[in-house]
Write a structure and sequence with these properties.
- This protein is an all-alpha fold.
- The chain has nine helices and no strands.
- The longest helix has 24 residues.
Length: about 190
């Protein structure tokens, strides 16, 4: 077994549920390690426990790779994750660049809420960028209509401000739709 004797001798806590993620070797390892760390924050444990639980997430080719390592080779969790990173470096998701948000456009028929969510997810994945650029790209990507016109007339300085305005716009649209549903479409007969 690739783990040192000290890791092998460490018992897993009986309260440990173990991680609910798996790594086959084709996914982004960094995303896997982030999910693993998030789940392990709830469990706690020693370096050796982390090693054993991370090993339990390996399946298919990754597990075969792991068991092929020399006996006693892995002595720390950091060493284990370094070996994984070296082995699966090719699977690393490409770093998103700030100009990637230039390509985000609201689709014809896409609700403002869906566009806002999709834009937000892409911006969140970026390294910190210039706020003015985020604002410009969001406005540039919106379909023509009352909301995009209001964005052009009354410029927002931050994406947070745009999100607040978009949420107000979405709420107003929902109220209009609800109000239209309450209005009868047939005129009552005239009395008389």
């Amino acid at each position: 077994m690739p783990f040192s004797q000290a890791i092998m001798d460490t018992a897993l806590p009986t309260t440990s549920l173990g991680p609910k993620v798996t790594f086959t070797g084709v996914e982004d390892l960094e995303a896997h390690l982030t999910a693993f760390h998030t789940q392990m924050m709830l469990t706690g444990g020693s370096d050796a426990v982390y090693c054993k639980l991370l090993m339990s997430t390996l399946v298919s080719a990754t597990l075969e790779w792991f068991v092929s390592l020399p006996d006693g080779h892995i002595t720390t969790f950091d060493q284990f994750t370094t070996l994984l990173r070296e082995q699966y470096l090719v699977n690393k998701a490409p770093t998103r660049l700030s100009y990637d948000v230039f390509d985000i456009k609201q689709y014809q028929g896409e609700s403002m809420k869906d566009y806002l969510n999709r834009f937000g997810v892409q911006v969140m994945r970026l390294k910190p960028t210039d706020e003015a650029m985020k604002v410009h790209n969001f406005v540039k990507g919106t379909l023509p209509g009352p909301f995009s016109e209001s964005l052009l007339r009354f410029y927002s300085k931050t994406l947070t401000e745009i999100i607040r305005r978009a949420l107000a716009h979405i709420a107003a649209d929902d109220q209009v739709i609800e109000k239209r549903g309450l209005v009868g479409s047939i005129r009552p007969p005239a009395v008389g």
